Amino acid sequence: MRASNKISAVQVRSLPPGKYNDGAGLWLVKRDDGGGQWVLRLTVYGRRREMGLGGIGEVTLKEAREEAAKWRSMARQGKDPIKERERMRREMFREDQSLSIITHEAFEARKASLKNDGEAGRWMSPLDVHVLPKLGRVPITEIDQRDIKNTINPIWHDKPDAARKAINRLGIVMKHAAALGLDVDLQAVDKAKALLGKQRHKVKHIPSLPWQEVPDFYQSLTDGSIAQLSLRLLILTAARSAEIRNLNLSEIDSDVWTLPAERMKAGREHRIPLSKEALRTIEEAMPFEREGFLFPGTRKGVISDATWTQIMKRRGMEARPHGFRSSFRTWCAEATDTPREVAETALAHVVGGAVERAYRRTDYLDQRRELMERWADHVSGKVD
Fold it and tell me: From which residue to which does the signal peptide run (predicted)?
């Protein structure tokens, strides 16, 4: 039998940084800051395992020896003490297996791959709104396809996009639970989709103005207000609403506007060549600048995209601001010979597969500079 009880209670506090063997597999690991950790070394199924038993600030020498004896006994019974401890913890705290808890754990695990670490809340939103209010307190191991079907059914046809996101993200949460070792039905989401059936809702695209009619609308934006100037720049750059509204002058260098990755939907830096007309519009809007933002709100923040929508609604238009991206893309296809990859890059769309993108290391800035000048000439009426 291995010698044990080699360390005294006084030594636990006084020993310098290092590793000290108390015997029978129990070790004290002292840190430079004076703290320390109890570690039990075991051999389970022929493998060396190390099991943390707690810090010296919370676990005394006597308690560490008692814990070590308990887990050594379990190892002699052919059980893995680490896995057994995890199982016992899960059984002791069943509420920790609730869908709500596991969902937030899954979100934390995915944050690094989400835009701005998921700060906008878009990943969690479908679950927070449509799933967790009904199933949040239910242990995830008890959730089956009928629970999921009954929860998603009210929005399956009426809010198809939200329903699709909610059920797909629920599937990710279920996989996370399985990775934790919980006994969940990984087929529950697919079974629920089968019970829900095919969505009857048809996708409605955002109404856009035909590219032939954009010049008349653009040239009517003449009052010099922050709303109309920002809408003009939206049209000229074919950018997204949030990109224009949050434009900061620090992002502009000469005739190139560089949007950082954290502001882009695809999470990649995007350069927009600014036409002469766009630069004139920016210069005209300079008196409105506040703290670097070209289009600030009335009191705080930045201008709302609802302002643009109201301009178009008041004129009886069905088209909406985001639709100008479609107007631009259709113009590229019908009125120019612009290569597809250049037009798609102008819209900050990801073009081609991962391998193709790895070899195509260009954003076609020069070609897009010429393209945006032609688009500006079109909308400002300089060409037919």
Answer: none
What kind of fold does domain 9-79 have according to CATH?
A: Double Stranded RNA Binding Domain (3.30.160)
Question: Which strand (E) or helix (H) includes residue 105?
Answer: helix 99-110
Measure the CA–CA gap between 363 and 234, rounded to whole angstroms: 20
pTM here is 0.58
Q: DSSP for 107-131?
A: HHHHGGGSGGGGTT-TTTHHHHHHT
Per-residue pLDDT, 206: 76
Q: Which CATH number fits domain 95-196: 3.40.605.10, 1.10.150.390, 1.10.150.130, 3.40.50.1820?
A: 1.10.150.130
Cα 24 to Cα 75: distance, rounded to the nearest angstrom = 13
pLDDT of residue 202: 62
pLDDT of residue 111: 76
Among 299, 369, 371, 362, smallest CA distance to 333 is for 371
319 and 309 in contact (C-beta within 8 Å)? no
- Distance, CA of 76 to CA of 44 (rounded, Å): 9
Name which of 243, 247, 238 is nearest 209 in CA terms. Answer: 238
Lookup: tokens for 299 = 């009191």
Predicted confidence at residue 1, as pLDDT, reads: 45
- Residue whose C-alpha is closest to residue 76's, from 110, 42, 102, 108: 42
Each domain of the chain, given as residue ranges in start order, spans: 9-79, 95-196, 211-379
CATH architecture classification, 211-379 = Orthogonal Bundle (1.10)
| Mean pLDDT computed over 185-203 | 87
* DSSP secondary structure letters along 346-376: HTT---S-HHHHHH-----HHHHHHHHHHHH
